[in-house]
Design goal:
Blueprint (H helix, E strand, L loop, with lengths): L1 E7 L8 H4 L2 E8 L6 E10 L2 H7 L9 E2 L3 E9 L11 E4 L9 H4 L7 H9 L9 E3 L2 E5 L9 E5 L3 E3 L6 H4 L5 H12 L7 E5 L3 H12 L4 E6 L2 H10 L3 E4 L5 H8 L4 E6 L4 H9 L1 E9 L13 H6 L3 E4 L7 H13 L9 E5 L4 H9 L5 E5 L1
Parallel strand pairs: 4-8, 11-12, 11-14, 12-13, 14-15, 15-16, 17-18
Antiparallel strand pairs: 1-2, 1-4, 2-7, 3-5, 3-9, 3-18, 5-6, 6-10, 7-8
Helix pairs in contact: 6-7, 6-12
């Protein structure tokens, strides 16, 4: 079938994207789903920094590539051997397909699936296939999803069935921002009621972490960012204190607010400087978690004596250390009960033709989560 999709043909195109148009809205050919795959009619797809980092070249990927990884939609067709879903089911996409058989999957850590990581890096589906083509050339898949399109074929292991009562433009956020941000708090750090937390970087993932810390019962939550409007939103979402990271004494301010540092600091900005700050504001015996995705060349120097003498823990968190079949329904349920107000993260809705302008706003820090609605 022929569909409209946002295709990145070259990385590293400079902003403003409204003029340079790194994403080209093209007519591409989409194959039917193969064995173990599904065809999804996309309902909504969120604009995330993980997409932006491919556009600007920070995270190199093979091109041409149809972007978009945070999405929700409706099952249109089932490939061979898919028997646990039905046409018409509402699903959220997960940007790391899990094979179910490798060592991480067998250990209950599907976010670290080895075949899934290989497929994502190569721009294929979990099977190794590419189902998108344009003018006789294969188009790569973005993280097994490629959701900036009217329809997408993906592995069955890339979708989670959800309650159809949840609007698709809200459901889309659960596939990345919520799964990553809340999961880092709940699964990776296992934040306990009464503990203190700090979140650095208040994009969609960082603000979802604030929501996760509130839901977990943290007694103090310090939100840190460069933008005052995002600091204000964090307070509305439950942060008890805010600090602008532009301040030369930001670390000192945070340590003073928290009596020497927080139990858990979450770095969600994807930069080495943000991670350095997160480590500085973590108390003795505390945990520093990073879920930001910096460029592959970024490095971090840590004072090893502190790591030992203060019994510090530094942890990475990918997709919130999630088990998608468990976590997405849980988080959706919390949202429906009013415990996780994910809808407050949305900055606005776009059409597919407005996507380059949307990435300008994301690049400039003027949006939290914009959603393309089909």
């Amino acid at each position: 079938m022929k569909i409209r999709a946002a295709v990145l043909n070259h990385m590293g195109v400079k902003p403003p994207y409204a003029k340079t148009k790194p994403l080209s809205i093209q007519i591409v050919e989409l194959d039917p789903p193969g064995r173990g795959e599904v065809l999804v009619k996309i309902g909504a797809a969120g604009l995330c920094h993980s997409d932006l980092s491919v556009i600007n070249g920070d995270r190199p990927r093979p091109t041409p590539m149809a972007l978009g990884h945070e999405a929700a939609g409706v099952i249109e067709a089932l490939g061979e051997d898919v028997s646990d879903l039905s046409v018409g089911d509402h699903v959220v996409m997960v940007f790391m397909p899990s094979c179910g058989h490798c060592m991480p999957c067998a250990e209950g850590r599907p976010a670290l699936c080895e075949p899934g990581a290989v497929a994502n890096g190569a721009g294929t589906l979990l099977s190794g296939a590419r189902r998108l083509h344009c003018d006789g050339v294969d188009v790569n898949h973005h993280l097994g999803v490629s959701a900036f399109a009217e329809y997408a074929v993906m592995a069955r292991r890339s979708v989670i069935k959800i309650d159809p009562a949840l609007p698709l433009h809200e459901a889309a956020l659960f596939g990345c921002a919520v799964l990553t941000g809340v999961g880092a708090v709940v699964n990776t750090a296992r934040l306990q009621p009464g503990q203190t937390a700090a979140v650095i970087g208040l994009g969609g993932v960082g603000l979802a972490s604030v929501l996760g810390a509130v839901a977990s019962g943290a007694r103090q939550i310090v939100a840190i960012d460069l933008a005052d409007d995002k600091l204000g939103l964090a307070r509305q979402l439950g942060a008890t204190d805010t600090v602008n990271a532009r301040a030369d004494d930001a670390a000192e301010q945070i340590r003073a607010l928290t009596g020497g540092g927080v139990d858990v600091a979450f770095e969600m900005a994807g930069s080495a400087r943000a991670m350095e700050l997160a480590y500085k504001i973590t108390r003795r015996g505390g945990i520093t978690v990073t879920a930001g995705l910096p460029p592959p060349t970024a490095t971090l120097a840590l004072p090893l004596v502190n790591l030992v003498a203060e019994e510090r823990t530094v942890m990475g968190s990918y997709i919130g250390s999630c088990v998608p079949t468990r976590d997405i329904p849980r988080y959706v349920g919390l949202y429906q009960r009013g415990r996780l107000p994910v809808d407050r993260l949305m900055s606005g809705v776009l059409t597919l033709d407005e996507i380059n302008e949307g990435f300008d706003r994301l690049h400039e820090g003027k949006a939290v989560r914009q959603v393309v609605v089909f």
